[in-house]
Fold this sequence. Notes:
- The complex is a heterodimer.
- Chain A has helices spanning 26-31, 35-49, 111-123, and strands spanning 15-18, 61-63, 71-77, 80-89, 92-102, 105-107, 129-131.
- In chain A, strands 1, 2, 3, 4, 5, 6 and 7 form a seven-stranded mixed sheet that branches.
- By secondary structure, chain A is an alpha+beta fold.
- In chain A, strand 5 (92-102) and strand 6 (105-107) form a beta hairpin.
- The longest helix of chain A is centred in the first third of the chain and has 15 residues, at 35-49.
- By secondary structure, chain B is α+β, with helices and mostly antiparallel strands.
- Chain B contains eight helices and four strands.
- The radius of gyration of chain B is 20 Å and the shape is globular.
Amino acid sequence: MNSAVQADNVPSLRLREIVGANGVGVITDWLSRDGGARAKFHVRIGNLRSVPRTSWNKKQFHKLKDADGICEIKWKSGDRQWCALGYDKDGYFVMLLGCTHKEDVYDPKNCIQTARTRRDEVQQGKRQIIEYRE
Amino acid sequence: MKSNKERGKSLSTENKLTGLLSELQDRGYREAYVEAHAKDTIAFQLRQMRLAENWEQKDVAAKLGNPKLQPMISRYENPDYGKYSVTTLLELAKVFDVALVVRFAKFSELLRWDLHKDSETLQPATFGRDVELANMGTETWMWRYEARTQIDAPISMTIPLTVTEPVTTVYTRDAQAEFTATGSTASFARAA
């Protein structure tokens, strides 16, 4: 059994992101600081899109434990792991927050809790969602 | 006539191209883009080809001649690993009966490949199942023409043609592409 099989009813990978306080998508803003990480993210999502979701590997896409459906798209750039945290909504993967980690040090520290809070804000209509543009 | 889905895909490809052309001006992006394509794509392909055969990683290792190589197959399927040996990749190409292309290329070539990548690209057919190979040298040719309009918007078309006689082609970026097919002549000139 493929451990990465999650939400098979969601077709491929269509991305949206929430808008931050500065009016820019949070992932667009976060990745704008690092061209290398951005390139690797774009190639990764392109490859994920090209294969059935049922064959994704948990090293690329992972449902977090005890996080109420929050998942992460994972990739490596430089000496650290990069993650875009989000959840499935209306056929889209809505990205809520970006974070990096190296060994056990997460940046930002409480990223999973922040992602949960933001998801709740989306559900309550307090957050604007936009298409993620590569 | 294109369906809405095709129109949507075409538009999305154009948007992606515009974005990529801009991003590639950044050297950091450019270098990581090349690296990610090399590492990510190999890992995805290995996994897809293995799943298509219903093989476990240990089966691939056994076909390489050593079942103890399973951990290596696992690493090779990890897109963040990337420490591939060309010799091992050649051995894996034999196992899956596919070709392996390792060479330097222009960015435009990589871009074109990226934009038109699909599930078949990531799961290349084995020699025996390669339908395009069977059709090569017979009748159907795919012509691709690319140009820019006066407003500098990219145009691209893929045109299937049945060729009835040897094709004479004149193709330069600044002039025109010309060929004869099925009794009629078609030509596409680059916009001024």
